[in-house]
Amino acid sequence: MNPPLAEPPPPPVPVLALGDVLLVTLQGDLHDSAAERLQHDIAERVAREPVAGVVIDISGVEVVDSFLARVLAEIASTARLLAARTVLAGMRPAVAVTLVELGLTLPELTTVLDVGQALALLGRTPSGPRARQGGA
Amino acid sequence: MRVSHHTVRACLPIGSDSDLAWVRQHVRRVAAESGFGLVQQTKLVTAASELARNTLIHGGGGHVEVTALEDGSAHGLRLSFVDTGPGIRDLDQAMTDGYTTGGGLGLGLSGARRLVHDLTVDTRPGQGTTVTIVVWATDMPRPRAEP
What we know:
Order of helices and strands of chain A: EEHEHEHEH
Oligomer: heterodimer
Number of domains of chain A: 1
Helix content of chain A: 25-40%
Largest sheet of chain A: 5 strands, mixed
Number of domains of chain B: 1
CATH superfamily of chain B: Histidine kinase-like ATPase, C-terminal domain
CATH topology of chain B: Heat Shock Protein 90
Structural class of chain A: alpha/beta
Structural class of chain B: alpha+beta
Number of helices of chain B: 4
CATH class of chain A: Alpha Beta
Strand content of chain B: 25-35%
CATH superfamily of chain A: STAS domain
Radius of gyration of chain B: 15 Å
CATH topology of chain A: Transcription Regulator spoIIAA
InterPro entries (chain B): HATPase_C_sf (IPR036890), HATPase_dom (IPR003594)
Distance between the termini of chain B: 25 Å
Number of strands of chain A: 5
Radius of gyration of chain A: 15 Å
Largest interface: A-B, 28 and 34 residues
CATH architecture of chain A: 2-Layer Sandwich
Protein name (chain B): Anti-sigma regulatory factor
Order of helices and strands of chain B: EHHEEHHEE
Pfam families (chain B): HATPase_c
């Protein structure tokens, strides 16, 4: 067994502002520490800036375990307390199947198929297809 | 045990956040090499992530042993998550949905069990815990885990 190498912390996930919508694109494998940092960063931005919505694009995420699911749900709950709406975009089918078997249906999260639908739902582009409300 | 042939493929340390990421990447790769479909890969990597995090958070770190299984034409993987932590005091409770001592959703053990074909726990108070999961690449009929 090799000793763990001393690695620098993963870079923070960028949070982009598109008008009053924050756009976060998650890619690949997200370290726990990066996920927790993202949660903190979004809460700060939502509280400080005139943010109406948060779009989290997870189309590039291959695995959502219960830790990341909890972080995503907490981001949505926190943003709601700070008067912003969170939309989760682009979950992969294999991730959805796995989350259901894991026992996580994330009823508190609004989900859509892609970022375009998320922006439409938040009223930021000409109307697109209706979003699917997460729920039991 | 129905396994006629097996080889230890790797032994990976679990001592940090980055180790969890490395375990996920490694398990994804060997699952793909063993012929697992995308959904099955995703389930296995998710289960491995849950269990590796348990090893890190509750067991104070440890390692995972990855073993390739072969039984005739069937290919599978066995992952053993080993720690030398305090052990699990009440296993029945730890296997219950929603029970947590680690600040998560309490779905680690019970959730992982639903994602794999077999999950066994060997735990001794004060000496540690080994959680072993087995997944086969073929779509063999199997009973659903109790809810």
